[in-house]
Amino acid sequence: MKRRKLTFILVALTALAPTAGAMAHPHVFSTMKTMILADDRGLVKAVGVEWTFDENYTQFALEGLDVNGNGTYESEEIQPLTDENIKNLLESQYFTFVKQNGKLLEQTAVTEYGQSLNKDKLSLFFIVPLKQPVDPKAGAVELKVYDPDFFIAFDYEQTDATKLQGKLPDGCKMDLKPLPSTEEMEQTQTFLADKGTDWTPDQPTDFGSMFAQALVVSCG
């Protein structure tokens, strides 16, 4: 059995790690918000991400973390889990991929992050700095958040899903692009559904990108 080296919520993913074939289908579901951060020159310097997980997954992830046994989860009880999340997510670029002119941009390690429990759902927030800020006037900047193995599905919140911190250059704007068409989605889902549990692609395939919405900063 192929175990995921990345344990994005350590306890849960260790127990739920799928076979290679099963990784073509989502097993964990999250809604999200994203943010573009611009510096005082209008350059894109970082992106922010917030994931909110479903109640069942949250319950599993929190198992055993109520150390004082008072029936609640204080921030200090959740913090070790949060630190482990961020540490392990580094191995997969935090599932956060930023491109300009089709080229993947280098990132640096996350240092600003946090996790909270609200209405029986865990929410994890972090900011991913770019190694070098980029000028959106030199080419569109695209942010996609996804699990390349499509083990975890990320869907944007219905309202207030994106935010800009700072100011972009004049003539530049930020747009959340629509999902692939229903026909495209159905073709991909049908393709994956026909595969057995022991199936692996001949070449590395970025399944998650097929289902990911793009947040794009463009100019002109």
In short:
The chain is α+β, with helices and mostly antiparallel strands and 220 residues long.
Describe the structure.
The protein has one domain (about 10-220). Helices cover about 20% and strands about 35% of the residues. It contains five helices and eleven strands; from the N terminus they run αββααββββββββααβ. The strands form two sheets. Strands 1, 2, 5, 6, 8 and 9 form a six-stranded mixed beta sheet that branches. A five-stranded antiparallel beta sheet has the order 4-3-7-11-10, with no helix packed on it. The protein is globular and about 55 Å long.
Give structural attributes.
6-stranded mixed beta sheet, single chain, 220 residues, 33% strand, alpha+beta, 5 helices
- When the domains are counted, the total is 1
Strand-pairing-aware structural class: alpha+beta
Q: Which radius of gyration do the C-alpha atoms yield?
A: 18 Å
Low-pLDDT ranges: 1-24
Main sheet? 6 strands, mixed
Shape: globular
Taken in chain order, the helices and strands follow as HEEHHEEEEEEEEHHE
Proportion of helical residues: 10-25%
What's the count of strands? 11
- Overall pLDDT metric: 81
Estimated share of beta-strand residues = 25-35%
**End-to-end CA span:** 50 Å
Number of helices, where a helix is a run of at least 4 consecutive DSSP H or I residues: 5
